[in-house]
Amino acid sequence: MDTQRLILFFIFSFSLLMLWTEWEKTQRPKPPVASATQTPGAAAKPDPTAVPTPAGAAPKPAPVSAAVPAAPTGKGEIVRVQTDLIAAEVDTLGGTIVKLELLKHKESEDKSKNLVLLGAQHQYFAQSGLTGDGGPNHRTVWQVKPGERSLADGKDSLELRLSAQGKDGLTVDKIFTLKRDSYQIDVTLEIHNGGSAPVTPHAYFQLTHDGKQAAGGNSVAQTFGAQSYLGFAAYTDEKKFEKVTFSDLDKGKADHAKQAKDGWIAFVQHYFVAAWLPAAGQVRDYVVEKRADGVYAARVVLSAPAIAPGASAKLGAPLFAGPQEQSRLKTVAPGFDLVVDYGWLAIIAWPLFWLLENYHALTGNWGVAIILLTVTIKLVFFPLSAASYKSMAKMKLITPRLTKLREMYANDRAKLNQAMMELYKTEKINPLGGCFPILVQIPVFIALYWVLLAAIELRHAPFMLWIHDLSALDPYYVLPVLMAASMVVQTKLNPVPPDPVQAKVMMFMPYVFSIFFFFFPAGLVLYWLVNNLLSIGQQWQIQRMFERGKPAHAKR
Prior knowledge:
Elements: H1 3-27, E1 78-82, E2 86-91, E3 96-106, E4 114-118, E5 125-130, E6 143-144, E7 157-165, E8 170-179, E9 184-193, E10 202-209, H2 219-223, E11 231-236, E12 240-244, H3 246-251, E13 259-260, E14 264-268, E15 272-276, E16 284-290, E17 296-303, E18 312-323, H4 326-332, H5 346-363, H6 366-380, H7 382-397, H8 399-408, H9 413-426, H10 436-454, H11 478-493, H12 500-517, H13 522-549, H14 552-555
Antiparallel strand pairs: 1-2, 2-3, 3-4, 5-10, 6-7, 7-8, 8-9, 9-18, 10-17, 11-12, 11-14, 13-16, 14-15, 15-18, 16-17
Helix pairs in contact: 1-10, 1-12, 5-6, 5-10, 6-13, 7-13, 8-9, 11-12, 11-13
């Protein structure tokens, strides 16, 4: 069986499966919105105007009230702070990060603009405060303290400090600490008890999102319904990495770690991630929910020891908001590199990316790294490929004899099959010998597909000449055309089926399957083109050896 036809058949089937999955997502009926009146026994959805309340098994004092007014009083101002990598805008109404730009990454559609990761477009905000109505929280108007707003030369960190008053003498300072060469923002709540009684505050750190496809996604992936995971994720040492999907939240069936002494909670999208990363050893609750207004929220809730009158305490959690650069993710928190979505073949994808990364370090060009990785994979599978091509070469040599057998037993299928099996046995040919070696390679191809799709390192990475972005389509479709031509050449090297109808189908298959490569990222097409060229050379050489070594076959 032809190597390319077999592999492309799996690609075609895989693409159809992804298209069907995406159609199901977009066409299935939307779940009915719950009415204001709940049926007895039904779980009430969280109030979008409510401030988070403590949860979990640990004994905690009940707040006076969980709700705050539907419309917050007062009006805030926007404070912009900037480092070498990020620019964040904080609204003093709530002390919320309402916008976060990545200064080293550009928008997909307009590369003259910085990519906006957090922002109002998707109600993607980072909120924090104290639970209950004792406040202050993300509905409170905070007062900004004077200070630097841009990271100065020679400085390693920048601090933005806000202050707000709660009830019963409670005062809270919210401190945002930004660092050079870092996508991490340390958010700390300094709580001072100015009242006459001890207090046990609980702080929440929350991410919200409307659940729609986020900016920075790969349009090619979206075309085939194969975009990387979009949704929440949680990690703990006990349960490891867990995805919390929007569909599970819609159905009220979300399952994840609720309480732990370690881990993090994040919102994951293609190429980028935002996550709250509390320090290990601190008991925390994880809550992920869909609010009544349709916005999804995920938060971590931390508790402080009782604070005596006149005393102070701190509660904080770093916020990582940036690209899924694997070299950074591994140093942020345990298991944080798992947010890179390599699908179900991650065990193969990780070594492939490691090789790709090392080749890039050697050459400084991701396109050249892809070529070197292709050669490496080809060398690893050389014995299997050789076995496959030898089987094909033998089949090609006996094709004239198979044609004669079909003519002799055109009306007797049983005798035809028997004669063909005797011919295979005489010539020591396994008609399926070319299939198994290729089947082994298919998981590697799919894993590499996800590597090239999910690796942000390839986003906007140039190769040479007209290829300025290996994660996007070839703008002039040169690589797909060359790919189609290579498939036609390889078809010519394969044995022609004796059946005329099959022969015509095989003749048109390269053109049909090549259409898919017009919608694949340039990096993936580059890999497959180089792989094809190497395969053609290997197959041609093996066929020459067989034709020289066994000329008698061609004469029979």
